[in-house]
Amino acid sequence: MRPSVLDPYFASLTSLPGIGPKLAPLFDRLVAEPGVPARVLDLVLNLPRAGIDRRVGGSIAEAPAGETVTLAVRVVEHRPAPPGRARAPYRVVVEDETGDVTLVFFKAQRGWLEKLLPVGETRFVSGTIELWDGRRQMVHPDRILDARAFAALPDVEPVYGQTEGLSTRVVAKAVGAALERVPALPEWQDAAWLTRNGFPAFRDALLRIHQPAEAGELSPELLAKNPARRRLAYDELLATQLALALVRAQAKRPAGRAIAADSALLDKVRAALPFRLTGSQEKAVAEIAADLASGQRMLRLLQGDVGSGKTAVALMAMAMVAGAGRQSALMAPTDILARQHAARLAPLAASAGLRVAALTGRDKGRARQGILDGLASGDIHIVVGTHALFQDDVAFRDLGLAVVDEQHRFGVHQRLALGAKGEAVDVLVMTATPIPRTLALTYFGDMDVSVLSEKPAGRQPITTRALPLERLDEVVSAVGRAMETGARVYWICPLVAESELVDVAAAQERADDLRRHFGAAVGLLHGKMAGRDKDEAMARFASGETTLLVSTTVVEVGVDVPEATVMVIEHAERFGLAQLHQLRGRIGRGSDASTCLLLYKAPLGETAKARIAIMRETEDGFRIADEDLKLRGEGEMLGTRQSGAPDFRLADFAADGDLIAAARDDARLVIERDPQLMSARGEALRALLYLFERDAAIRLLRAG
User: Fold this and answer.
1) I need a labelling partner for 411 at 20 to 30 A (CA). Which of 212, 426, 444, 552 fits?
2) 3-state secondary structure (DSSP) of residue 481
3) Are residues 271 and 147 in the same domain?
4) 700 in a structural domain
5) Are 73 and 122 in contact (CB under 8 A)?
């Protein structure tokens, strides 16, 4: 049950003065998840984006143009728009001892302005000074206040994000009311850590951010380093790491089943591989073997760049499990990839006497039943499939290892659902999306990590060039010359069908155009094709029946045709950096030199220019991932909403990267010392988990 001290934070916004049925939906849109009514918590965690200094800043003569200033002035004269010129502005001249400035209003009511700015009275005006015909003016001042109202105005006014119908002033007023309602909370952070970092208490941090002493504290540069904001970001990161640590502890609490690797069987698989394992592959195999032998459940992330040989490591792991008489399941995100994995693994596994089968949603009738029977009897040692593996009628004789390929395509719940198909199932998760260390700690903090840092021997660097679309004819000619030498070519298009909104070439249209040059050598692959048709298109390309494959990003993940040495990516400016890297990774998988051509529509924006420059500079997926994080931010990069990974309101991965490892270490220490969160700090940490809505971990704790 949520601690009662948090009730004011979780109260409806309508409990605040001034927020009724009209304003509430606007606040919902601004600060809450879609379809969820906003709460006081949502409002106080919605941090300001900037601050405006409303203190009187010198005289009119000293006021700099183009900046927001606040002036104490005397009203001198009203100059209404001339009769018959309704569109002309209404002007009010105000002055101090150093000079004057004209306040300019459009579509203003004369009576309202005369009441707001009575001639001869002193008023405090705040807004931006501009120069017009050599004279100072202020168009529609932000504030016009008498002395009493000005005294009540905060020195620094925070600026919030807005939605239609809701001004930053209304938001600031609501935040002020919310901060008066929310109480101080028991301290969940380590006292020495707070002192070392100069972090205030939780509620004090909220007050310092929403009611800063200086406007500069809310500038992007200073806000990133602001101890109050960093305190709140660390709270959010610690809540996430603690939840992951609790999930991990719960997953490991039921004893695993120790598996000793059968070295003779592994030697047979090694001998069947067409290459020697790299040093980092051997290290990953050893780490997995140690996990399997430990008697603790394995929960390991295998992270490797495109073409680094993750599947070979997974095969070794599955062979270890088979040697102990247990089964493995490899879950892939697409039909094409699942069947390709199965086709590649089957002959290698067969060399060691192991049987591999594929199971996807397309398998029906007798064929499907045969696979289900083989899994139930244990005759099938390794099954490769898609979401179809989750279905109720899929039962294993003894599932020992779940391998999840491309983790970012699946949520945590899905990987747990697959693990539930057996008793004490070990889990190996693979990703070819290089993830910066900060994000790996955050999203996979419940896992041990193995990194494949080398490419298999014999792989050559990929030459990457960028060309404007105006040179398309030259590219087509170059592709034709490459095909004459036996090269196979991918041609990637961003959309399946022509869109009126987005000026990009459709895959279908591009395929038709290229067939006029190369005839039946051109194949087509896109996401709207039936599964069987996709497989056939891929098979024709892999066999060399077609030598130029026009495709959408269906080929982005995992598709492996070593003979493909040329890739053309059309409208490269439309793709993200990580996606460009994934696509390029489809070539350069054999021993021949490869070329990637990035076609772009000029002129390029700054971000697109930076992406293309980085692609030309490096093939290092981890550097590319770091650059992608800088260019796009973590949410877009990982697709967190789709993956079931936590959303972050306060933590900024560029500014707070150093806090993530600290939060992970702190969470692990807490679980070691107080696994049930029963100490005084443990009780406070329970409140933290509820506050940042990581309370699913609390339910897991109770269930355990």
Assistant:
1) 552
2) helix
3) no
4) no
5) yes
Q: Considering the chain, what is the average pLDDT of its residues?
A: 86
What residues form DSSP beta bridges with 69? 127
Pairs from 4-11 (Cβ < 8 Å, separation ≥ 24): 5/183, 5/185, 5/186, 5/687, 6/185, 6/687, 6/690, 6/691, 8/40, 8/181, 8/182, 8/183, 9/39, 9/40, 9/41, 9/44, 9/182, 9/691, 10/39, 10/40, 10/41, 11/39, 11/40, 11/181
Q: Verify that 432 and 494 share a domain, yes or no.
A: no
Name the residue with higher pLDDT: 460 or 24. Answer: 24
The answer to whether residue 644 is domain-embedded is no
Considering its fold, how many domains does the chain have in total?
4
Q: Specify the pLDDT at position 436.
A: 62
- On whether both 417 and 566 belong to a single domain, the answer is no
At residue 82, the 3 state secondary structure works out as coil
In eight-state DSSP terms, residue 389 is G
Query: How far apart, in whole angstroms, are the C-alpha atoms of residue 457 and residue 459?
Result: 6
Q: Do 476 and 392 fall within a single domain? A: no
Is 349 within 8 Å of 341 (Cβ atoms)? no
Name every residue whose Cβ is closer than 8 Å to that of residue 704 and which is 6 or more positions away in sequence. 250, 253
Torsion angle defined by CA atoms of residues 59, 62, 68 and 71, in that order, rounded to the nearest 10 degrees: 10
489-539 pLDDT, tens digit per residue, is 999 987 554 443 343 457 888 999 999 999 999 999 887 787 788 888 888
Please identify, among 618, 651, 674, the residue that sits at the C-terminal boundary of a domain.
618
Contact 95, 101 (CB under 8 A): yes
120 and 134 inside one domain: yes
Using alpha carbons, select from 629, 591, 634, 635 the residue that is nearest to residue 610.
629
Distances (CA, A) of 407 to 343, 470, 480: 21, 39, 37
Q: Note the pTM of the prediction, 2 decimals.
A: 0.61
Look at 696 and 462; give whichever has higher pLDDT: 462
Residues 109 and 200 in one domain: no
**What pLDDT shows up at residue 262?**
85
- Let me know whether 431 and 576 are in one domain: no
Does residue 676 fall inside a structural domain? no
Q: End of a domain among 591, 618, 645?
A: 618
Question: Can you give the CATH number for the domain in which 125 is found?
Answer: 2.40.50.140
Cβ–Cβ under 8 Å, residues 414 and 391: no
Q: How far apart are CA 237 and CA 239, in angstroms?
A: 5
**What count of other Cβ atoms lies within 10 Å of the Cβ of residue 647?**
12
The per-residue pLDDT for range 79-124, each reduced to its tens digit, is: 998 887 878 899 999 999 999 999 999 988 899 999 999 999 999 9
